[in-house]
Amino acid sequence: MSSSGDEAAPARKPLPCVGRLLLAALAGLLVVGGTAPLAHAAPGPSRPLARDAAPAPLFITGLRGTRDIKQQINVYSRGNVTPLWSWVPPGNEPSLSCLRESYGVTEAKWAANGTRIAAIVGNGVVVVSYPKGDLLFGACNHTNMHSVEMLPGNRIAVADTSSSAAGGVWVYSMDRRIAMEPIQRVGGLPSSHGLLWDETAKVLWAVGTDRWPQQGSDSPAVHGLLVAYRYDPVGDQPLSPQAVHTMRQSPALGEWPGWYDGPHDIAPVPGQRELIITTDLSVLVFDIDRATFVSPSASGAFETRLKGFSSHVRERDDAGQALSGMKSIGLSPTDGIIYAQPSWRADFANTVGFATEGGRQPGFMPGGSLYKARWFREMPGWPTAR
Fold first, then answer.
1. How far apart are CA 154 and CA 256, in angstroms?
2. Closest Cα to residue 58, out of 68, 50, 69?
3. Most buried pick, 24, 77, 251, 329, via CB within 10 A?
4. What pTM did the predictor assign?
5. How far apart are CA 298 and CA 296, in angstroms?
6. Could you tell me which residues come within 8 angstroms of residue 364 by beta carbon, excluding any fewer than 6 positions away?
7. What kind and span of H or E run contains 304?
8. Contact between residue 72 and residue 126 where contact means Cβ atoms under 8 Å apart
9. With the C-alpha atoms ordered 264, 168, 291, 111, is the resulting torsion angle positive or negative?
10. Order of strands, edge to edge, in the sheet holding 184-186?
């Protein structure tokens, strides 16, 4: 279906995945990184990184922890198996013990034009300075979270992946270093999974479903939703729904019996007013100017970047669902596609995938399990909130 993938998740199957649509290339070679240097990384950057110094593209991912190894956030230069920068949650913050109550890192992304990293770690949300590695903000919410996005006005949004109708988006003020409660909870979007700030339209995009996508005795119809929230940077209730775009009725999942298809991630097309949305079964394209989902063949971004995609997960290709189960996807104008796609019937991936139009690219195995992977850079036409 489309829920977490960590201990904080409501009882359910280990987590969904499935889908197909067209795309170009990937699979094949794997660059394997060792676990030893990562397992004992200290809080803060393991190596200060001059962002202008690395010629290769940078990407970020969070590695899931274990009983013996702390979860961590790493920035890599593509082609280098050693992280350029690492951060682990501090052990001396009593107010943020939630960060270690579960092992997952279900989100880690570039923020504030590269001066910050926003992440979901364990049962909390954090903002860390980059490259210094200082913990600038933290909040515990002890719920199932899948994404985070900084907003203008020193605020931050969190995708609350709740199974109830109260699930949706929480907003925190970052005026205090540790926030005890959100300033707003916006419901009506169960299984909320992805968030994206749109500076051009001054809205926050979110994806989720209209009902919790687990089959019940009455088996109600389920639909994925793409919601645009109008944002007031100074208001006490900063988010209000502006538009709701409904996806086709969600089919049942063969990969996860008992669950329906649902969205997982949302990503911008660089330099264009289009959104790419991954679901358990497929990849969708939304044309913002036309306010509609469009056929992949009508999207230049899809045709040039995603057509003919071949998954490194054999079961997905064999099932005719090469694009299924992508927990994250990112498009770069110069470096192609980055994505995280776990094995069949698995929640966490062990490989960061790359693809460019018309060619397979080496994947990267960081030596641990991961939920999402993202390019670590600003995207043309989609500036991050400052």
1. 39
2. 50
3. 329
4. 0.86
5. 5
6. 30, 31, 33, 76, 78, 81, 351, 352, 354
7. helix 300-305
8. no
9. negative
10. 145-151, 155-160, 168-173, 184-186
Most confident of 13-22, 120-129, 311-320: 120-129
Tokens coding 100: 């270690």
Q: What is the pLDDT of residues 218-228, one digit of tens each?
A: 667 999 999 99
Give 90-108 pLDDT, tens digit per residue. 988 999 999 998 999 999 9
The separation between CA 309 and the C-alpha centre of its own chain, rounded to angstroms, equals 20
pLDDT by residue (tens digit) across 314-352?
A: 899 888 999 999 999 999 999 999 999 999 999 999 999
Q: Which residues pair with 9 in a beta bridge?
A: none
**131, 86 Cβ separation under 8 angstroms:** no
DSSP state of 254: S
Check residue 360 and give its pLDDT: 56
pLDDT of residue 295: 76
Q: Which tokens hold the place of 249?
A: 């009725």
The structure tokens listed for 292 are 């509609």
